[in-house]
Protein: Oxygen-insensitive NADPH nitroreductase
Amino acid sequence: MNQTIETILRHRSIRKFTEQPLSEEQLSAILDSAIAASSSSFIQCVSIIRVTESDKRESLAEYAGGQPYVATAAEFLVFCADYHRHKQIHPEAKLGFTEQTLIASVDAALMAQNAMVAAESMGLGGVYIGGIRNNPAEVSELLSLPHHVFPLFGLCLGFPAQDPERKPRLPRELIVHQDEYQQDLDRNLLAEYDNQVREYYRTRTGGNKNTSWSEQITATLDKEARPFIKAFINEKGFSLK
Structure:
């Protein structure tokens, strides 16, 4: 095992940060690492908005569902699907295909993961903020996002002011399939994992949370998941066909 793999395996979401700012060199390395990520067909259809104005940070924290670390982290980056740049290059570009939405989403995730790994390799921490999709129209207006650009998620970065345990992930046997999809879920293995997650929450919350992973996803998938998103991205010129 090398240092890169060790950094990846140590990943935890950090939601409390010190007041120490990132150096210009650190931020530059993080952004360069993000930009170096793979790009489908070399389309490069992602833009990153670095938000530094405190009032905008406060608004984004509110739009994201009241997540204060959006306002207090040393850096906050918003990753956006972006074909506006391409439309300026080629006004007759055939846009609006769902495949283009997928390409932008995948590329943005690759860029953000590169940024996170780069940050963690320097002793920094971070957390992704999907909550900006709670109010995508307001976020778009705040950041002056034009047509053919919409916000996918945010990323808080900074020096950690907490040292949380690593959250247990599903065992490899439930994720990795050999040659074909294994349709029968190993319930015994799932039960073992549920117990691990339940113990993780008990330890992390001092016994105030007693939930398994299966119970958590049942609650999550029993409710709507931002049903307004489809209409919003359609208005922005995405996934029309």
